[in-house]
Design goal:
This protein has helices at residues 2-36, 44-56, 60-91, 93-106, 115-122, 127-150, 154-162, 167-202, 210-219, 224-246, 252-255. It has 2 domains: 1-38; 43-261, MetI-like fold (Orthogonal Bundle). The longest helix has 36 residues, at 167-202. Mean pLDDT is 81; it is low at 1-8. The chain contains 11 helices and no strands. 79% of the residues lie in helices and 0% in strands. The protein is mainly α and 262 residues long.
């Protein structure tokens, strides 16, 4: 009974505690603005009115869709390329030795540094931010896949070989599945980075999206309420995207790789 009650409380706390923290932050935010008498920082109510204004003008969902489209294209391309490449580099030692130095040279270069080249190559179009998002995402995903394979417990491989698995079957049934938990962690990290990059890219390389909304609101009469409204929407969408990726951890093929917390 106590264990069941504890689980119930924990389940409720996952909703109640974040809500309490959110309300507290909004109250502190509102009080701080009122006390400081700042005309540059909007109150939560002013931000809410700014969001309502964007909805009435039909801009909010338009810009959200533009940003999500770019993130989806660039990020999915990074997953399709990064996961197989990382698994292969992690499994084949000669390939790892050949390509790892180049990977470590390119990985630390900020995607923002690629913006001038992306604009010169693709112009002011969706292709430029998609390219930047791909660069921001593919390296964390590939590195997590490499580490997952190289750190795999040898007992998995010995057990699989005892059952006669080899070649492609071994790679598909054991190596890929055993690597999934760490790969998903890399995907979560990469998605957060991709969401940061699309906002930065939209401030420079395109004329739509939430990043463009922020820079346009600043230029059009310093609408700080719309600036913060754009920031709030970016944060909320980032939270939703992370929750969606975390649902992958519930699949049976992935869940066994996590330590039990019960």
């Amino acid at each position: 009974m106590e264990l069941g009650g504890e689980k119930t409380v924990n389940g409720k706390s996952r909703i109640v505690l974040p809500l309490c923290v959110g309300v507290a932050v909004l109250l502190v935010w509102h009080i701080a603005v009122r006390i400081s008498h700042s005309y540059l920082t909007p109150t939560p109510l002013e931000v809410l009115r700014g969001i309502a204004e964007l909805i009435q003008k039909g801009l909010l969902f338009k810009y959200m869709a533009a940003s999500l489209f770019r993130v989806t294209c660039g990020f999915m391309l990074a997953v399709v390329i990064g996961v197989p490449a990382g698994l292969l580099l992690g499994w084949f030692q000669l390939a790892f030795q050949a390509f790892n130095p180049m990977l470590q040279i390119l990985r630390p270069i900020s995607p923002i540094a690629w913006i001038p080249l992306a604009i010169s190559w693709f112009g002011i179009s969706d292709a430029a931010p998609i390219f930047l998002i791909f660069l921001a995402s593919v390296f964390p995903i590939a590195v997590s896949a490499i580490a997952a394979v190289q750190n795999m417990q040898p007992v998995y491989l010995r057990a699989a070989r005892n059952f006669g698995l080899s070649g492609g079957e071994l790679f598909r049934q054991v190596i890929f599945r055993a690597s999934l938990p760490q790969i998903i962690t890399g995907i979560r990290i990469a998605l957060g980075v991709a969401w940061l990059v699309v906002v930065a890219a939209e401030m420079i390389a395109v004329n739509s999206g939430l990043g463009y909304l922020i820079i346009d609101a600043r230029n059009a009469g310093k609408r700080y309420d719309l600036i913060v409204a754009g920031m709030v929407m970016i944060g909320l969408i980032g939270l939703v995207l992370d929750l969606i990726v975390r649902q992958l951890e519930k699949f049976d093929e992935v869940r066994w790789g996590y330590a039990s917390r019960e």
